[in-house]
């Protein structure tokens, strides 16, 4: 491969047979396993803070669980990419699901014995945060390995269907199970991670040829930072990553701000839940738009369109028209999410050689995670000193500024979808 950024490589990729995705055994195993795993993750994202709150009575400690998990994921993100490029990706995925199943199982046993403690839960948060970027990048790269290039957009779209379906079903299911018995959500999540583990055990991806020595030489730090360097070197990747990070920064705290607004208006918890679900429903519906949008718009035009609509819709959340108005705005905002994520995935897979994709993917995920963390911290400060509608307008203005810089770049406006790389 000679048209990629970075060092030359002798890696030769053998594309799997172009059978329909529904008959692609490896893809269906990965998809089915990840569907169960994502459902389990969505359940625990709701239940773990509830358990911490029940054990400590402290909202601060309940929030600390997610904070610890996010911090460890950010810390491990870049080194995890180097491992995904140098180690067996299937083994890394198996490791993640094993750790997550053991973590959920340990809390299940503690709940059965009525011995749940805060130190135990914080250790679980560290373990989950440490393996999440490792297995997450490995799963994405395995999907690329078992899917022919022409089917990649369709495969990534199905991945979006899975994640949004889990986001829609997981929290209500977790709340229902937790209300029935504390042990039930942890039993369900342990089983879901075990199912994903079993699916990963049966995946047989094409064998990878080792990269040329020039791609792996250098200090450990330089190898870890390779993904960041690649994202910065390629103009379209640089701008799409920065724009996606800003979009993540302003969208991550929206749920919290909307909850604050609806709470002050005396909206019932049930209606608050329905309003929040609108974002996931929009994301699920948005998977139907991925193919036509990617077919009819260039990457630059698509990014500008999604960014412009997001500025308007985020600003619309500040209008005092009640819960149904907010639900409609969140639904419309969710429609663009899948197309934006698939856009960046496609750009990475088509412009970065396989032996550097792990570091590039985890670099991208780490930057987005840092943006989300910054957004959550900033939103707390905005809500402390400003009214919620002004806080929303501030976030919309930040995104508008980022969009204006993007529009001003001629290279982004003129960008075209890169060709799928071919083997030498």
From TrEMBL:
<feature type="transmembrane region" description="Helical">
    <location>
        <begin position="91"/>
        <end position="113"/>
    </location>
</feature>
<dbReference type="GO" id="GO:0005886">
    <property type="term" value="C:plasma membrane"/>
</dbReference>
<keyword id="KW-1003">Cell membrane</keyword>
<feature type="domain" description="Major facilitator superfamily (MFS) profile">
    <location>
        <begin position="224"/>
        <end position="424"/>
    </location>
</feature>
<keyword id="KW-1133">Transmembrane helix</keyword>
<keyword id="KW-0812">Transmembrane</keyword>
<feature type="transmembrane region" description="Helical">
    <location>
        <begin position="302"/>
        <end position="319"/>
    </location>
</feature>
<keyword id="KW-0813">Transport</keyword>
<dbReference type="Pfam" id="PF05977">
    <property type="entry name" value="MFS_3"/>
</dbReference>
<feature type="transmembrane region" description="Helical">
    <location>
        <begin position="361"/>
        <end position="382"/>
    </location>
</feature>
<protein>
    <submittedName>
        <fullName>MFS transporter</fullName>
    </submittedName>
</protein>
<feature type="transmembrane region" description="Helical">
    <location>
        <begin position="176"/>
        <end position="203"/>
    </location>
</feature>
<feature type="transmembrane region" description="Helical">
    <location>
        <begin position="242"/>
        <end position="263"/>
    </location>
</feature>
<keyword id="KW-0472">Membrane</keyword>
<feature type="transmembrane region" description="Helical">
    <location>
        <begin position="269"/>
        <end position="290"/>
    </location>
</feature>
<dbReference type="GO" id="GO:0022857">
    <property type="term" value="F:transmembrane transporter activity"/>
</dbReference>
<dbReference type="InterPro" id="IPR010290">
    <property type="entry name" value="TM_effector"/>
</dbReference>
<dbReference type="InterPro" id="IPR020846">
    <property type="entry name" value="MFS_dom"/>
</dbReference>
<feature type="transmembrane region" description="Helical">
    <location>
        <begin position="388"/>
        <end position="408"/>
    </location>
</feature>
<feature type="transmembrane region" description="Helical">
    <location>
        <begin position="325"/>
        <end position="349"/>
    </location>
</feature>
<dbReference type="InterPro" id="IPR036259">
    <property type="entry name" value="MFS_trans_sf"/>
</dbReference>
């Amino acid at each position: 491969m000679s048209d990629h950024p970075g060092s030359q490589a002798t890696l030769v990729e053998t594309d799997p047979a172009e059978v329909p995705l529904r008959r692609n055994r490896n893809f269906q195993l990965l998809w089915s396993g990840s569907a169960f795993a994502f459902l389990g993750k969505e359940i625990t994202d709701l239940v773990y803070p509830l358990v911490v709150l029940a054990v400590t009575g402290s909202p601060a400690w309940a929030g600390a669980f997610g904070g610890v998990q996010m911090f460890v994921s950010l810390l491990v993100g870049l080194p995890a990419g180097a491992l995904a490029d140098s180690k067996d990706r299937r083994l890394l995925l198996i490791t993640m699901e094993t750790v997550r199943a053991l973590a959920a199982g340990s809390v299940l046993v503690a709940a059965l014995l009525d011995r749940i403690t805060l130190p135990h839960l914080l250790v679980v948060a560290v373990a989950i945060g440490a393996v999440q970027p490792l297995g997450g990048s490995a799963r994405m790269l395995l999907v690329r390995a078992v899917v022919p290039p022409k089917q990649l957009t369709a495969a990534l779209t199905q991945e979006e269907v899975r994640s949004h379906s889990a986001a829609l079903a997981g929290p209500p299911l977790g709340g229902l199970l937790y209300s029935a018995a504390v042990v039930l959500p942890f039993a369900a999540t342990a089983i879901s991670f075990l199912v994903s583990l079993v699916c990963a055990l049966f995946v047989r991806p094409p064998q990878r040829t080792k990269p040329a020595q020039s791609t792996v030489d250098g200090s450990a730090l330089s190898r870890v930072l390779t993904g960041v360097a690649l994202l910065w070197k390629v103009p379209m990747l640089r701008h799409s990553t920065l724009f996606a990070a800003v979009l993540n920064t302003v969208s991550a705290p929206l749920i919290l701000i909307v909850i604050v607004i609806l709470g002050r208006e005396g909206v019932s918890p049930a209606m608050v839940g329905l309003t929040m679900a609108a974002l996931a429903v929009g994301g699920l519906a948005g998977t139907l738009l991925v193919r036509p949008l990617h077919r009819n718009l260039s990457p630059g035009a698509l990014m500008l369109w999604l960014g412009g609509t997001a500025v308007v819709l985020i600003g619309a959340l500040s209008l005092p028209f009640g819960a149904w108005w907010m639900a409609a705005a969140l639904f419309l905002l969710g429609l663009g999410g899948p197309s934006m994520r698939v856009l960046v995935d496609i750009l990475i897979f088509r412009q970065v050689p396989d032996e550097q994709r792990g570091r590039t993917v985890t670099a991208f995920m780490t930057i987005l995670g840092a943006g989300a963390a910054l957004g959550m911290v900033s939103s707390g400060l905005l809500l402390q000193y400003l009214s919620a509608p002004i806080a929303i307008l501030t976030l919309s203005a930040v995104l508008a500024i980022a969009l204006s810089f993007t529009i001003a770049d001629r290279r982004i406006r003129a960008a075209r979808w890169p060709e799928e790389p071919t083997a030498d």
